[in-house]
Amino acid sequence: QVQLVESGGGLVQAGGSLRLSCAASGRTFSSYAMGWFRQAPGKEREFVAGITVNWSGGLTSYADSVKGRFTISRDNAKNTVYLQMNSLKPEDTAVYYCAARSGGSYYVRRLEDEYDYWGHGTQVTVSS
Fold it and tell me: Is the distance from CB of 97 to CB of 118 less than 8 angstroms?
């Protein structure tokens, strides 16, 4: 069982930056692939970014809408995954969720049902 707690959300002006953190419980964090998803009001939850486990290269993948602006990274010593968000836009406004998938693979999973554990989310609001 893995518990995930997100932090770092808030209100920021367009063009600004935020760094989200997701702290995971347990001693096997390094064996979990991690992902960030988001859900805007009235919309379905969507994939934002993901990172594989280290033995598969710590590969990353991004949604086209955030590519070049967001960076996902992980610190296995701190059981934490990060999402650095730069050049934020009003359309980035959403609740951001951290997710964990047990077991590794050689590519980043992008579907919600491919992840086993979820955090409760953190609100990100970007004003214009």
Answer: yes
Residue 10 confidence (pLDDT) above 80: yes
Instruction: Determine phi and psi for 10, rounding to 5 degrees.
Output: 165, -165
Rounded to whole angstroms, the Cα distance separating 58 from 60 reads 6
End-to-end CA separation in angstroms for the chain? 40
Q: Give the residue from 48, 72, 68, 77 showing the smallest Cα distance to 58.
A: 72
- Two tokens, residue 32: 């979990």
CB neighbours of residue 113 within 10 Å: 6
State the pLDDT confidence band at 60, using cuts at 50, 70 and 90. very high
Q: Which amino acid is at 31?
A: S
DSSP annotation of 60 reads E
Per-residue pLDDT at 128 exceeds 90: yes
